[in-house]
Amino acid sequence: MFSNDVKLKKNEVTWFSYVAQLGSVLLEDVSRRTPASSHSPHEPPPRSRSARRMKSPHSLRLSLLLLLPHIHLGQSDFAPYFYDNGPSSTSGNMALFSIAEDTPVGAQVYTLNGTDPEGDSVRYGLTFEKGSKEYFRVEPKSGRVTLISELDREVEDEIAVLVSITDGRNKVVEKGRVFVTDANDEKPEFLNLPFIVSVPEDTEAGSSIFKVQAVDKDLGSGGSVTYFLQTTPNTKFTIDGHSGVLRIKPGEYLDYETSKTHFVTVVAKDGGGKYNGKHQVMTSSATITINVLDAQDSPPTFVGTPYFGYVYEVSVPGSEIFTVFAKDGDQGNPNPIQYSIFNGSDGSFSINSSSGCITLTTYPIQLKNELYELQVKASEVGPENQLLDYTITMVTIRVVDLNNHPPTFYGENGPQNRFELTMYEHPPEGEILRGLKITVNDSDQGANAKFRLRLVGPGRVLRVVPQTVLNEAQVTIIVENSTAIDYEKYTFLSFKLLAVEIDTPERFSATADIIIHLLDTNDNTPKFSTDFYIARIPENSPGGSNVVSVTATDPDSGLWGDVKYSIYGSGADLFLIHPTSGIIYTQPWATLDAEVKSKYNFYVKAEDTEGKYSLAEVFVTVLDLNDHPPEFDENFLEKTMIIGAPVKVEAVDDDAEEPNNVIEYSIMKADPENVFDINTSTGEIKLKPFIKSMEIVQNITRQKDCKWSVVVQARDRGSPSFTTTAVVKIDITEANPLSGPMAAFLMQSRDNPLKALGMVAGVISVMVMVTVLISTAMYMRNTKSNRIAPARRIIRRKRREQQQWNFKTPFGQPDSPDKVVADDVESNTANRNKNNNSSWPKPPPPTAPVLPPPPLANLRVTERQRSAVPTISGSLTSRSCSRTSSQKSLTSKDTEDRPSQSKEGNVSSALVSELKKKLEQKIIEANQGYYYY
Length: 933
Description:
Blueprint: H1 15-32, H2 57-73, E1 81-82, E2 91-92, E3 97-100, E4 108-112, E5 114-115, E6 123-128, E7 136-138, E8 144-147, E9 158-166, E10 171-181, E11 189-190, E12 195-200, E13 208-211, E14 214-215, E15 225-229, E16 237-239, E17 245-248, E18 261-270, E19 273-275, E20 278-280, E21 283-293, E22 301-302, E23 307-311, E24 320-323, E25 326-327, E26 337-343, E27 349-351, E28 357-360, E29 371-381, E30 387-399, E31 408-411, E32 414-415, E33 418-424, E34 438-441, E35 450-456, E36 462-465, E37 468-470, E38 472-479, E39 492-501, E40 509-519, E41 527-528, E42 532-538, E43 546-549, E44 552-553, E45 564-568, E46 575-577, E47 583-586, E48 599-607, E49 613-623, E50 631-632, E51 636-642, E52 647-648, E53 651-652, E54 663-671, E55 676-678, E56 684-687, H3 694-701, E57 707-716, E58 723-733, H4 741-748, H5 753-785, E59 819-820, H6 825-830, E60 874-877, E61 887-889, H7 909-932
């Protein structure tokens, strides 16, 4: 092999030095190829077979001498070569490369790898022999080999490829073989299908009856096959898992008479193997059809047992009574049957040995018993006419009366097959139809005279009693469903009365027709075609105009079906109804006006001759007509318009409905012209957009008063349409210098002073409420910060007339005649006189205090007394009823924990003066703290 270290660039050294270097390299290469040497991991792999030369120093020298002329003539050019990395490698020349058959198409499976001695880039190629399928494709530059066709080892297990490498000048082609390894992708396949086997039914248990065989084309464990049966609970077979031999299970036997064919499903399973990287076990199944062959192992069997025969009064000797039939239990190869009477005939009966027909041998009058039980024997006849297995059965023969009389219906005058009755509809349920006199009779005896009665006709309307008769009975018909007997549905009802024998083979029967004619009753109420009627009539319709026609029907016949109409209700004053036709029309004097009332509702009544009736409701809508023109409040209006703000005119249309009361506004005439626009829907009049100031207005009018007139027309949308006009005098003024929402509101409210007054009153109310809230908060704060201790003593004095105290407080408000507040909230409640049944009116809510100016004293904030100042409270309450005197109570905190008691008397004047003085002092101090806190 040549290393890249020995490459020489053109014109870099002389050819003599190049030869010397080449020789040294060749000698080193020979030393490396000696058996004692080994490849270094850093050396390139050995060259392919086509490149292995120069095995001795002598051959190297000879090659060197041969190369010298070439080197002397020009630079040498060596062919590229593949690396041979062995069969286990995925890189090299694909020699002895192996690939699994389940490799997916498109996968990279190998990399061609080689080099060029001169270091030139190489390109790879991969082809196949002519006529061979192409399985791989190579990327020329990288040498990556990709699978392009699906592999199948069972079809082709070895692929010949031609790989090539070229440096652009020299091309080396090598032939390699790629081996396809097996994957478990084939199912076992059964041979010699279908599987059909015939087995005698007397085959012994455990016997081998069949052998199945299946093959799997896979190799290894994937090609081994084992067998098993898809068993059912009653299976009679088993199979050897390795040999495939099918046997009868031990303890099981085949029976042709029970089952003639068995179907067994055998499954062939391979040993499993890898497929697409996963372990896979594949199976196949086949059905084995086992036909059981019959053997002579079953006795004869009688068919159609039990057997019954009858001897009738008209029978004669030789009459056939009954025929028995038996067959060989072995159906595959049956033997002929021979019949005989084994016991019980008493000489009165005989049997045909071949056909099994039993005949009478004497007259019925000579029979001694009414019931005979014959034992009949059926024997198999062998090939040599010997009697083999046999079976005995019982034949019961009864001597009976001959059934030769059918049931017959009778009326009052003898046999009769038609009965008629006339009755009213809807008879009570359970009522007997006594007008029908029916008798039924059967002249036979015993079971021949037993029969059943049945009534056929409209379901569950009538029923017959009795339902079962022996010999003779009186027939009774009872009403079961009264509703179904309706004259309006049927004028007559038709039934058939059947009598059918029950226990006789002849099943004789008789029929009779029952016709019921119905008479009508007044059982129906008149019924309107609908529960309510909706009508529409234009207003101003003349009196007597038709509104709507109502219809009611009564299905009863005659006078009962005549209907009379009437009308009533709070809304029926303007309407009448024809008593027979049901046409509703307006009163002759009635005038309908949609603007007065547009909706009427009332009831109509339909009544038959006996007073049965029903009701329906009528809804009448009066349709509005355009009979009112629009109207302005005044024909001459005066408005004041601020430039930029509209003025509004409004007309009213008294019509009840749209579009008759929808008004459109327009300007008919204006002075000056073309200065106003009007909103056709709202009637708002505004100046043209170009009029933005009083200068423009004065330029148009040339007058100082700026009063313009407009003729406005109001037109409704009715048909025909009505119009009304009004003259509007508009005084044009410029906007008030005031700005803001309040100014705009006041300007817009000039025409509606009540609205502006209401707004002002609302604002003032809000301000008063805010002031009250602030005053209350300040008052509560001052009260809590200026509490004083209660009085130390209470002086009781003689009861006298109540006097009022007026304390002047620094708040600028008169003292309340009700209370002098000087105590905490808890003591106020306790000091009230419980005997007082009335109280003074509540004082008005406090307003914001008028505080004095801050004092100029050298009072610093840090020197303020922050502690609570003791206060004294007193309360004045009044009492009503017969007493005119009042009482006043003073309590201290020492008495808070004691029960509250009523205390009467007045406080002395001295104590009151002291309280007033202290209270004023504390209020002043609180105000000072308000400013300096």
